[in-house]
Design brief:
mainly beta; 5-stranded antiparallel sheet; 4-stranded antiparallel sheet; 1 helix
């Protein structure tokens, strides 16, 4: 198990929680003084009141909560947020409302989920040579069927 240090920037902030023993995502909570409305087809920034120290070699991926997305059409604006291990500011979630009705986020609501994931550090090397051949080649969107 990897230890991730978290600092409350606001005393009312809630540490990320897991919904079950095998859940990959940890719920992030809205740290608000009062309810905030996400307008139809609009975006609203919601703070978590937390700063997170993700270990080197990992990043924090902020995903939608499936219940919010399925029942209320609410999701992170950028679909998946990427929080680098050297970021120490407040974790913010820009919420987008894909519906035609306003959605109210209340203090303490679960707004997204954080998954801590490893990544590979890579070195991109330019080449003048042809890249290796594959069965797919350069065929793009929809080329592999349904």
């Amino acid at each position: 198990m990897v230890t991730v240090r978290v600092k409350k920037l606001n005393p009312s902030a809630v540490l990320p929680t897991s919904g079950s023993a095998c859940a990959a995502g940890y719920d992030l909570y809205a740290c608000l003084e009062a309810p905030v409305v996400v307008p139809p087809h609009g975006n609203t920034k919601i703070g978590t009141g937390l700063s997170v120290e993700i270990p080197d070699g990992y990043f924090g991926a902020v995903f939608a909560r499936s219940g919010l997305a399925a029942k209320h059409c609410i999701r992170p604006s950028n679909c998946v947020g990427v929080c680098d291990s050297d970021y120490r500011g407040e974790y913010m979630v820009f919420m987008h409302n894909d519906s035609d009705v306003p959605y109210t986020v209340n203090p303490g609501d679960r707004i997204a989920q954080l998954v801590v994931m490893p990544y590979l550090a890579v070195n991109f090397e330019e080449t003048e040579e042809e890249l290796s051949q594959t069965g797919r080649g350069s065929a793009g969107f929809g080329s592999t069927g349904r």
